[in-house]
Structures are given as C-alpha cells and as structure tokens.
Amino acid sequence: MNERIFRILEFDKIIQLLSSEAATSLGKDLCMTLKPSTELDEVNHMQAETDEARTIIRLNESIPLGGISDIRPSVKRSTIGGILAAEECLDVANTIYGGRQVKRFMEKLDESLPILSNLNEQIYPLRDLETQIKSCIDDHGHVMDSASVKLRSIRSSIRTFESRLRDKLDNYTKTKSNMLSDAIITIRNDRYVLPVKQEYRGAIGGIVHDQSTSGATLFMEPKAVVDLNNQLQEAKANEQTEIERILRMLTEQIANHETYLLDNVTVLAQIDFIFARAKLASNMKASLPMINQDGYIKMQQARHPLIPSDEVVANDIELGKGYTAIVITGPNTGGKTVTLKMVGICTLMAQSGLQIPALDGCEMALFEHVFADIGDEQSIEQNLSTFSSHMTNIVNIMNKVDHQSLVLFDELGAGTDPQEGAALAMSILDNAISKGARVIATTHYPELKAYGYNRDNVVNASVEFNVETLEPTYRLLIGVPGRSNAFDISKRLGLSDAIIEQAKSHIGIDSKNVENMIASLEQSKKQAEKEYEEAHQVLEESEKLHRDLKNEWNRFNEVRETLYKKAEEKAEKALQKARDEAALIVEEIKNMKTESAFKEHEWIEAKKLLDDAKPNLVKKKNKEEKNVNTKEESLQPGDEIILLTVNQQGTVLEKVSDDEYLVQVGIMKAKVKRNDLKRVKQTRKQQPTRPLATVKGNSYHVKTELDLRGQRYEDAIWQLEKYIDDTVLAGYEKVSIIHGKGTGALRKGVQEFATKHPNIKSYRAGSSGEGGSGVTVLELR
User: Fold this and answer.
1) DSSP 626
2) pLDDT recorded at residue 689
3) Contact 355, 289 (CB under 8 A)
C-alpha cells in the first residue's frame, strides 16, 4: 500500500482524527506513524488492544495520562555527559509520576484486560528518583534553596548584598534626586546602577555602564557600591556553580536509570496510542471487526467515518461469499463513490487496529494490497487526457493485482466512447476477477447492467433514487442494477408526455427490456424486504415465547424437585423418630416384664405410644386412582382434570389418541396417558352431619397428662373435671395437669379444684424434670 491510496481514500484524515485523541506527544507520534498491517496476528493483537481500552471507556473510566512528556532526548543526553536543565529534570520527575498514576489506575480495575495488564506490569515506579528530583526543583522548574545547605547559604548572602545595595542607592535617590533623570534603581550588566544626568557625571562619580539613546542620561554605578556589587556578582557566580553541581548530580541519577525511564516512556506511549484508538472508536460508535484471510467482507449498517453522523446513510455490504465482485450501476449523483470509499477506508482502518463504524458482528478481510482508481468524473472534462490518466493508473493496478487484493474502480471506462469504454470495463473486470481479487466498481454505462447476470462471481447493485423528491436516498441495493431515471425526472419537472414518449421510441428493445427488468427487480426486492421484516418480527416473537416457556418449564421442574426433596427429608425424619420411639417403648416393655407388679394403665399407655410411633405420612393414592381411571369414560376437550404425576389441576385441550390427551397445566402443555389423568367431578356441597353421642368404658385410653395452657378459666375447670372422671375410670393413680406459669390464676384454680374433688387424694407442684411450677401433679384415690 502506498501514500497515494491513503490520500485517495482519505486515510490521512482518519490519522488526524486519531492523533487529536492522544493525550501526550508520545501517543501523537505513534498515531501519525500508524499504517495498515498485512499480518493477521498483528492485526488481531491491535484490535484486541483497542477493544480492551474500549471496555474501560464503556465503564466511564478515564485513564490519567497528564504530565507525561517525551523525555527520551534528555535521557539520552544524560548518558553522554551532558548536564540537564532544571526543566528537563522536572519533566523526568513528572513523567515518572504520570506513569505511576497510570499503573495505579490499571491495578484498581476489576475487568480482565490481559494485554493492558501486561503493559502495566512493565511500568517501573521509580519513586526514589522522582522524590530526589522534586526535593531539588519546584513545580516551576527552579532549583530550590533546600536543594543543598551550601545553596541556601549562598542565596542568603545574595539577599543580604542586594538589600545593602538598595539601601545605599535609595539614599542617592533621596539626597541627590536633582542629579538623576529618574528616582529609580535599575540594572545594567547585572549590576545595580542609577540614571544620572550627563552634567552631573562628575558629581556622582563611579563607573558608566550604559547611556540613553539621546546621551542625556548615563547609567552609573556609584563608587560607593562598587565593592558591594562585586561581592554580589561573586555570590551569584557561586550560586550558579552550586546549581550546576546539583543538576549534574540529578543528571547522573537520571543516567543511572536510563533503561527503566526509556522502557516507561515506550510503554506509556503505547498505552496512550491504544486509548486514542479506543476514544476514536467510541466517538464513531464503531465496533470490533472479526478479521479473516478469506477475502470476506460483511458490514451491517456501515457508515463512512468522515461524514457527520446526522448526514451519513448507513448501508449493508457483503462481498466474498457467492460473489467476488460488485458492480454498482445507475446515474451519477447517487452516492456510488461514497460507498466505494467507505469500503476502502473501513478496510484500511480494520487492518490498522481501528474499529469500524458498523454494527456488532461485522467481518473484514485482510488484504495485501488495496488499489483504487477514484476520480470525480462529474467535474472533469471528458477528454483523451482524462482517459489516459485513468488508464495509466489502471494499467499499474492490473500489473500488481492478485488474489489478496481489494480493487476499487470508480466510473470504470469513463472518458472515452461509451461502447468502447463499456467493453473495456467488462474486460478489465473479467481479468481482475479471474485473478481472485475482490472488486467493487461503479459505472453509469447501461451495457454493464446485464454484466452481473452473465458472470458467476459478479452481483449487480445500485443506489436508490427517489423519483418523487428527485433526490438520491444513498441507500445501496445489492442484487438490483441501477436504472436511468431521466424520463421520470423529466416528467416530474414538467416535460410534456409527447416529448417523453417520442424519446422512448428512440430506445432499442433491449434497453427497454433491461429497464423493465430492473424496475421489476426493484419492486420485488422491496416486497421481499418487507416480508423479511415481518417474518423476522414473527421469528423474534416466537423465540421469545419459546424462551419464556422453556424458563417456566425449568422453573416448574426446579419447584417439583424441591418439593420431592423436602418430602423425602420429612419422611426420613418421621421414620427416624418412629424408630427412636419404638426402641424406647420396647425397652420400657422389657422393664415392665421384669417388675413383680404389672399395672394395666401403664400397659395401655405403652401400647398407645407404640401406635403413635408410626410415621404420619401422606399416603399416595396415584395407583388406586389410576386403577379407578381405567374404568372411567373418555375425556372431552374442556374437562377439568388433575395430572396425577404432579398433583396439579388443569384442562383437557384435545384427544390425541385412544389413550393419550393434550392437556394444559398452568402455562405448560403436555401429552399424557389417560391413566395419569383424573376427572374433577363437580359435586354438590353435602350438609354436615351431626356427631352421634358415644359412651366410653374403662377400656378407653386416657393420657396421663392434660394440657390446659391457653384456655379460659371456666373452660379449663370444666375440661379438668371431665378428665378426672375419665382417669378414675381408667384406674390411674397419678396424672399431670399442665397449666403453665403465666399469671398463676389457672394454677391456683387447678389446685383449689384438687382440694375439693373427692377422687383426688393430694396434689403437688411438678419437679424440675416434670415442668416445675407450670405443672401440678395429682394423686388419685
């Protein structure tokens, strides 16, 4: 690729935009030297760099690159014996500080940025060198008094001499003001002097250092201050010597860190360069292209990067699969050249590590060469010299073109006889295509409109023109050749129908057929695009519905699995509890057998505990219900059913086969067997039946404790009285009444009841193991 291509495709303007995004002179230098690469690995690496920096920009983060300078010349000079100025040393310190700020910024990011992180690791902090420089030189580039003890002493003496000089000279301005042209103290040749009138030269006495243009005023150093001036000059000379010593010391330290400093500068320049590319991509709303070596270009809603965003028209471009050449036909003023340049400049940008202004998912090919013959044929007089100029360029292109080339022809064959130009254009295209190059050509020759239909690797295209508004829309139509709109435009502008019809009669049959074919293609393409949009919308809605159903089904399965798991855990706990209780009961029974006295009520209580040890689980009725369902009649659409496998209610949608139905349970539709379904019967609400009175004998089981907590006083006493009767019938000797602690009212009532009841022998409060004061133990007669 040569500079001419960059100029024709305006790549140099892209470089200018890129350079303006750089924050340092180092980054700007790298931007200005950017060229497209032809190495796939290098291009992919540069694109990855840009995308990582773009990620940081998307997070609204701004990398701090302030204070960084190009210190390479100063560092180099420090290594060859030169002494750096204070400003140069300060630039070194500021660059070290800027690098450390960048390093700290990158380390704080949480994103995975392997390339930038690797660069960041190559930055050396060099805090000691920065501190040493900053302790000697202030922010304005002046060596400070604190740089050394000797410098502080020298500057103190300088201020003393200057003060004494001014005091003496002030005395002259007060006592001999009539001899002075002006009552001021000034400096000549670095010495303090007075402006003395010419006629008083002898009266003042001293050394003349200068005179005014007219010669009326002499700038004299009075004899009385000569010694002080000499002392001041000597002190200043000492000051300069000490400053040079300090700067020499700092320069030596900088030279000792040459490698680290130069490495830092190189890394910081690269980081600034990467972020400049990312900022440009962000401003252009560009996207990361996939790079291939197959000559395949695919861009959706691609825009020319140099046209303002509120004016540019986005277009879809695809080249390299199915066809390797695009011939854009149609009249001038339609934007064909803009499309041509847009493909070329986006190719150069992609190969330079720059993102391209198109939607995500774009693909760009890697080309060894990009050739272009582009000129504004509308503003150039059509003559032999123009044709010769273009043909010279085309000859150079054809001598170099190969299968790794992108060739852009604008108005191919223009500038000569139309028939010869069209024939020459077709021949040039055939030759370029046969070499495997990717070709995009524009032309307004009608002979090339049918060219794409006669070539396997060529597709026609055109730029849409709105006949109603008489303006181009700049919308590219792939697959549709351009047609002349001269008759339509003329009619819209008011040309009579008679003239237009007569003009049409002069056109050959073939041309008319081609124009009719093009019009039909345009109509078909518009209809196809409309139908495609509608189909795409339906597809998106279907995919959304499918995703929603899938999510609901997954959620249903998760809930079902959770319920199953909880049921299993509950069953396991119940079984374990039953095992523990059964073991306890068996042990008690064994103990009872060994005792000499066997009490009936204790046996009854143990038996009851053994019965209660069975786990209280919900019995599954699916099998029984399935057997019942086999005897039921077939279901009808709309019947309410229960899906036994999940125990959920639903509705029958349709009968699929004799033994299979399509049902809907919630949002889920499923095909299930008849045996898995149970019809929901609508039964009348039955009247509640009154319970029959029963008589309980002494064999009726009564617990050995009664819980009265939470009951009203009257209800508790009534229940207690009934309980005592039952326990006496059961033959119990001792029972426990649980009344809780609370306010003590219920406990007091129970104990008063115990003192009055004839079947209660005595009562006492429960022990610590029996419930304490919350329980009263009764002994029965």
Assistant:
1) H
2) 41
3) yes
Element (H, E) at 505: helix 497-505
Residues 6+ apart with CB under 8 A from 714: none
Interatomic CA distance for residues 46 and 124, integer angstroms: 24
Class of domain 622-679: mainly beta
Rounded to whole angstroms, the Cα distance separating 45 from 51 reads 10
Interatomic CA distance for residues 402 and 149, integer angstroms: 74
328 bridge partner residues: 442, 461
Answer yes or no: same fold for 3-126+257-284 and 622-679: no
CA distances from 38 to 29, 34, 44, 350 (A): 21, 13, 11, 11
Tokens describing residue 365? 């090919």
Any idea which architecture 290-503 has in CATH? Answer: 3-Layer(aba) Sandwich (3.40)
Length of the chain: 781
Q: Assess contact for 37 and 286: CB atoms under 8 A.
A: no
CATH node for 705-780: 3.30.1370.110
- The neighbour count for residue 781, using CB atoms within 10 Å, is 10
pLDDT tens per residue across span 520-542 = 566 666 677 778 888 888 888 88
Residue type for position 355: Q
Q: Residue range 189-206: average pLDDT?
A: 88
Beta carbons within 8 Å of 101's beta carbon, 6+ residues apart: 64, 66, 67
CATH number at 3-126+257-284: 1.10.1420.10
Residue 252 has pLDDT above 90, yes or no: yes
Residue range 418-442, pLDDT digits in tens: 788 888 888 999 999 999 999 999 8
Q: What pLDDT digit, counting tens, does each position of 20-34 carry?
A: 999 999 999 999 999
Q: Is the pLDDT of residue 582 over 80?
A: no
Residue 304 identity (one-letter amino acid) = H
**What was the pLDDT predicted at 728?**
82
Query: Does the structure show a pLDDT above 70 at 683?
Result: no
**Residue given tokens 């066997």 in the structure block:** 598
pLDDT category at 256 given cuts 50, 70, 90 is very high
Q: List the beta bridge partners of residue 706.
A: 737
Give strand pairing partners of 673. 660
3-class secondary structure per residue, 522-561: HHHHHHHHHHHHHHHHHHHHHHHHHHHHHHHHHHHHHHHH
Digit-coded pLDDT (tens) for 642-651: 888 777 788 8
Average predicted confidence (pLDDT) for the chain: 83
Kindly calculate the radius of gyration of the chain based on its CA atoms and give it in whole angstroms. Answer: 51
SS3 content of the chain, % helix, strand, coil (to 5): 50, 15, 30
Q: Residue 601: which H helix or E strand, with range?
A: helix 600-612
Tokens (6 digits) for 258: 């040459």
Nearest to 404 by CA among 561, 294, 533: 294
Q: Where do the structural domains in the chain lie, given as residue ranges?
A: 3-126+257-284, 150-228, 290-503, 622-679, 705-780
